[in-house]
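Let us work through a complete example step by step.
Step 1: write down the sequence.
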Amino acid sequence: AASDVYKRQVLVVAQVAVSAMLLVCAGLFVRSLGNVNNVDTGFTLREGVVATLEFQESGYGSEGGRAIVTELKERLAALPGVLAVASCDRMPLGQSIAITAVYPETPHVQADEDGVAVDIAAVGPDYFGALGIPIQAGRAFNQTDLPESERVVIVNSTFARTHWPGESAIGKQVRVHGVDEEPRTIVGVARDGKYRSLGERPRPFLYQPYAQASFGLTHVVVASSVDGANLVQPVRREIRALDSNLPIFDLVTVPEHLELMLFVPRALAALLVTLGLLALALGSTGLYGVIAYDVSRRTREVGIRISVGARRSQVLRLVLWDGLRLVGIGTAAGLLIALPSTRFLESMLFDIHPADPVTFVAVALLFLCVSVAATLRPGMRASSIDPVNALRYE
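Step 2: predict the structure and record it as tokens.
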């Protein structure tokens, strides 16, 4: 019988530990999602529409495709409520990324034969203004950055700081793998932003002019002063007016575009909360069963304690302590396991540390309350035992 009780206690401790770990992870996600509006994305665009167009399937070459994009931008700019229109091949916080090898010509950081891996995007002249990305040094792209013009690029501040610490990056040159071997001159330094996810750390980024890059999938960004939902149909009509057969890969509002980044964290938070609460329910039920069974086994012992002068409050504290001890061991084990485990979630957390003390303390307090609730009824039953009947108990 004693071994059975021991096995039940070990099972309760294990259930509490697993539940504590899951609830810590879930709590971090929930608190993180509450901070999402405070995350600095690096751009100020919050209202508008993003249209994603596929030109290659329609047989457009680079010249013809860019001509369509230029005319479309002029049409969209004339719509009521539109502030700016820009084009790019990749959106920040979008569903696709491009990484290339870059060879900075600098004495500070020598690139090896594989170069430096850098995220890259091709953007039009109005891109930085439309998205609200500040140019911290130099200039943005303009209409003179054409295929036959000098090859130029813009880098973000992390790229500039990494390769030219303490000096200006303007005028420095880089070579971009897979484009051509011609050096490209840095003409501007843009502010850092979030490119892959909201929780990422600062990473180097390189922009090249839309007209000097290979042509393919194109995002047309419409920044507006009105609700982007009111512009979806007008934008669709203008695209169809230019070419009714042009494939529209996607057409979403800016808030919908940003929501895509929250899908995975929200789904994980919901899953972890569900699993954590299920484990919590199983653990508290198991704890109640173990304590209730232990009290029934110790009825004679409790009766003797009361008969020799033990106060009923002391008996209640004894039972509560048994429950708190099991939950305390399980909670401590779960929190210790969660401490290193949550670091794997860091890239999906927004403005919160993986070892957030508020979350860990909240989970510990939750289990304290659960342990008291689960052991209170067996404790009250034990403290109300009639010592005469208890001494007769076999």
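Step 3: interpret the result. The mean pLDDT is 84.
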